Input
Amino acid sequence: MASKEIILFAKRLASNEKKIRDRSVRRLRLWLQKRSKEIDFDEIEILKLWRGLFYCMWMSDKPLIQEELADMLASLLFCFEDVKKWSLFLSSFYNTMCREWIGIDRLRMDKFYMLMKKMMKQSLVGLLTKDWDDSWVKALITVLSDGPIHPTEFKVLDGIRLYITEIFLDELLSLDLSKISCDQVVDLLKPFVTLSAEACNHSILNTIDENIYQRLLEEDIKSKLSNYQDLYSTLEKILFESGSKKEVKPRNRKILYNGSKRFREAKAASIAHDNPSNATEQILEESSSEDIKTENNLNFSKEIIEPTQVNETDDTAGNVSNTKRKKKEEAPTTGAKKKKVKKTEVKMTKRPRKVKTDSNPLIAKAKSLIKFKPKKSPAGTALKLSSGKKKELEKKGNAQKKKSRTPSPSSGKKVRIMLKKNKTQEFHKDEPAINVSPFRTFNMQTRSKAENFF
Output
């Protein structure tokens, strides 16, 4: 029964008339408030419902109407009191956006950006109304990490990842964060740390660095978060641990290490500002502990090559380089006479070529009798000739064609002349020919006869 009602709602939400759309949104809100407690919704049913809501937003025009509709759609999250149903409704929204994102044109893109922003804000407001309960916080983290912030999911496009990284921290800091703990804030930021460790797009890394890591170091945040020093210390450790993994790419590692360095420096500056007497001792202790961490975590392979002992008498040893030999020869020997080395000149002589002879005398005699015959090119293949030879052959061919076309002077042949009215007149030809028309050649005597005839 619920599936039929959802299909009817989806049809009415996607209608062309604005009155029907507004009425169906109001009725849907009341229906969800009543039926959400009784019915266990399936994922397919809620996806059908969000398809209708997507086209409801698609059909809306004018910015004020679009903003009002976005607020109404985002407020549907408060109809669910159960965590599972709430997370299913939110995850189906992000799934529909990822599925339909390619079909959105540039004229309608702004209103769907606004819808995503409203949904993010209302989801965080829902956590605040539940007093930042751990179950609700974990549900939001799973929705974000499995959906729009997943680093390797091919269905999720980079435009959605970029926009959510720009929005998230601003929407979080716009709320009252007095009751939230430091561990919960870190848990909410962990999906972005995994994204910065595994992302392939360079623009995503820059947006995370600017809008999250650098944004947390601003002075406005220190006034909103009472335990910001603990937050800096935990984020420093998490970024360093995620950057020290072998699977991480070098550019991702660079951003993670820079972020951990900034948080360490900000923590040291805040301690120095609060307690200037104990600041230096604490900073030195932390720096020594971090040096030990870098030596343990970064497992670089250092190959130590020990020098090999070689006797001076062995000339065939291959481990001693030429430079070492020169140094040994040039070094002055104390108390020992220099040995005279005879220089021997080596004359290079060419070896005579070995002529191959056939072992069988009959085969050798047969080869001597056989004369060399050049290979003929097979039919349908052209010989490879140089450009000069090609030109000579072309000239000979053209000359032969001209000879075949021009008749002999005393041949006595008859020539046909094309007339205007497709008639022919035959004339006798005795004198040498002159080329006058493209049709045929005829002599000077026949020219006057042809003119009189025309």
